[in-house]
Structure formats: C-alpha cells, structure tokens
C-alpha cells in the first residue's frame, strides 16, 4: 500500500498523542476487532475476494474492520490522482473505491466510470482553531487551505467569519504552521490535525481552542465528504456481500463511538499499521468521532448529497445511487 505524509504534519501529530481520550477512560471495557470477529456485524466474511481502494485519512480509518481480512484486499493511497485513474480505467481493477463524493459523482454524471454510489462513509472533519473563543468576531487573520477543494468550498458556503482577513495556503500543514507560528489568529484545520495542533500549541505556551465546527454549521449531521462506490458488475453479482460490507463499516463505527470497540488497539493489531499512515493510534482513537466517520447507505440521502454536490455544480441522477432493496 502506498503512503506518504508530510513531515511537518507527522511531527505536529506526534506532539499531540500524549493524552488518552476522556471517552476511552470512562467507557465500558472495550473489545478489539479480533475479539468481535465471531460476530458477523463487525467482521466481513465471504467466500469471494474483493479489492478495495481508498485514500488515507478519515476514509481510510473507516475501513479498519476490513484490514487483514482474507476476503478483502485493501489498498490505501495518498491524493486523488490514483483514485480518479481507478474510476476511469477501462479495465477496472477494484471492486470498491472509497473517494471524495464529488469526484465519483462528477465522473458518474459525465458517463466516465462504471462505478456507482453505494454509501456515504465520512460526513466532514473540518474545524476552525483559534487563539480565543471570540477570535472569529475580530479583525485578525485566518489561515485557510484547499480554496477550490472541499475545505475551501465548504468554508465559503458557510462564511463563519466576516471580519477576519483570509489568507489561503496550499495545504493544511501550511495553515497549521501559520497558526502555530503566530502569522494567523485562527486556522481552518481537519481532524486529527486540529486536535494535534491544539496540543502542540499548549506545549509551546500557546493557548488554542476549537471555535467553529463546520459540520455543525452545515447542518444535516454534516456533509457527505467521502463515499463508497461499487463497480456495477460486482454489485449485480454480489449484492448481498456488498450490503454486508457496508453494514460492517457502519456497525464498527457505531461500536467505536459507544465504547465497545477499542480502535487504538485494533490499529496497533494490524499486521502493518503503517498502511493507515504515521498518526499515532492514540490520536486516532481520541479524534475518531470528530473525523466524521459515519458509514451508511447512500439511498435515502439524496437530498443531503445534492446539497453538497451543488458546491461543485454536479447533479446526482437517480441511477447514480445503488438500491439495495
């Protein structure tokens, strides 16, 4: 599996992994994925073998219950180039692709892919971190990233600040550095980087706090940031297996949130934990809920999906969404 994380981000994240999550300390005795493997609801089982491609980050962590599974070949990649190439490959190599919702939907609407939308996987992980609770009402500078991508477009749609000076950067690590270095009073950040940045600031004597939750501001329990797409041939031949896969992802996420599954222990137990990136497992466990990992079927979410896709000028046709009924 391919992976490459910015050294700046890796160092920042490492600084935030010292404290254990409060939820973890008060939750009931946790069970690992290995311990729950006997339960079909959190362990995918099939006589067939399926290939799954997904990006690192929150969508990748959502697929943790599929790791080291004899029925699944899981590959995680950085960036959208590999995902787009897989979507348009005339000889599709993957049964399932997890990707930005707008990317897959745009290719479907243009008739350039044989994949269809099956489930929403993540519902946003963007936050504004600032130097004070009322920073957004001031006239300081806010560091932003992804101006023409999901982070920037969601921010522009919501316009959570009207008085601050906007400074756009190429990457989240640049926005992060601007906040930590004093060049900005607030920054748009994605989890787990947001929590790690707060911890890094504390270490340096800088008091930082989350001042805006863009998912909450959006409404509808967040926006469908990443989704699961299934090759039509695979869906038609193995509909029940594909439904089971989505159920496993959903039930696993629910188990983590309820404290019945220890995501940190499961990450540490993967044969090659590095495939998920270099972020410490304790940090992932601490920020799991804030990463918006909420897998569920796309059918029934068409209104929410279209609201999000309107940011990109993409129309979601009814036949773009798979029906499991």
Count of DSSP strands: 11
Distance between the termini: 34 Å
| Alpha-beta classification | alpha/beta
Stretches with pLDDT under 50, minimum 5 residues: 1-40
Over all CA atoms, what is the radius of gyration? 19 Å
- Assess the beta-strand content as a share of residues: 15-25%
Number of helices: 14
Provide the helix percentage: 25-40%
Describe the structure in your own words:
By secondary structure, the chain is α/β, with parallel strands linked by helices. Helices cover 36% and strands 19% of the residues. The strands form two sheets. The chain has a six-stranded mixed sheet with strand order 2-1-3-10-4-11, with helices on both faces. Strand 1, helix 3 and strand 2 (72-77) form a beta-alpha-beta unit. Helix 1 (7-15) packs across helix 8 and helix 12 packs antiparallel against helix 13 (281-287).
Short descriptors:
325 residues; alpha/beta; 6-stranded mixed beta sheet; 5-stranded mixed beta sheet; 14 helices; 19% strand; globular; disordered N terminus
List the helices and strands and how they pair.
Layout: H1 7-15, H2 22-26, E1 50-55, H3 58-62, E2 72-77, H4 81-88, E3 96-100, H5 101-109, E4 115-122, E5 126-130, E6 141-145, H6 150-158, E7 165-169, H7 172-180, E8 186-190, H8 193-203, E9 209-213, H9 214-218, E10 226-231, H10 232-237, H11 239-258, H12 263-269, H13 281-287, E11 293-297, H14 302-309
Parallel strand pairs: 1-2, 1-3, 6-7, 6-8
Antiparallel strand pairs: 3-10, 4-10, 4-11, 5-8, 5-9
